[in-house]
């Protein structure tokens, strides 16, 4: 299951509130203006069934803590559904897929953050993805306090509650961020973008990166 087609698979990664959703919309518009067929999607989620798994994963369960292994398995259950019913058919049809988080988030959050064995994650990754990898991954990188501050301000202005992951302690997010940095250093498909700058600067860099993929 390597990326079989003309459609490009681009993922957006990073911690909470760094600007993934905002910049996926920017990139989709930029590509559509060039006449390219694009869908935007997210993980966990992206299809009706996978979105029901997302709801369970993000909701705070005060009555019963979520077991970390169950969390990992649910991430990959949602991913199998998403990949097989939305991502792969779109790529096979030549559509570009822009995805808000993918397996790098599992490595960062469940591997580095929760400290689950990497071997489990790599086995599940092989089972679900075979050898499919994103063509390009944009790591939007900002100091934790910048991302968290933006996420909190967004939740306040929308009158939303923070989700179960956002209630984790600082040490958890430090491990997650370290995980993203380690992945970006190890894999050539990553482009790291300094997301602490004004949006216009971030988007100028993204446009330059997209240009290289045309
Ligand atoms: N470079 C930037 N400068 C200032 N504000 C920004 C920047 N990028 C995004 N924002 C704002 O920060 C908030 C969080 O952005 P966004 O929702 O895109 O982040 P996200 O990474 O998708 O967040 P999450 O992981 O929590 O879903 C939004 O209110 C957005 O408008
Ligand atoms: C794909 C994926 C996601 N997560 C976590 C990371 C975030 O806290 C939430 C998703 O919400 P957001 O709106 O994208 O911030 O889920 C994870 O722990 N593992 C994963 O594989």
Automatic annotation (TrEMBL):
Residues 12-205 form the Thymidylate kinase-like domain. Its EC number is 2.7.4.9. ATP binds at residues 14-21. One of its GO terms (molecular function) is dTMP kinase activity. It catalyses: dTMP + ATP = dTDP + ADP. Pfam families: Thymidylate_kin. It is an enzyme of class 2 (transferase). Keywords: ATP-binding, Kinase, Nucleotide biosynthesis, Nucleotide-binding, Transferase. CDD domains: TMPK. It comes from the Bacteria. Phosphorylation of dTMP to form dTDP in both de novo and salvage pathways of dTTP synthesis. Belongs to the thymidylate kinase family. This is Thymidylate kinase.
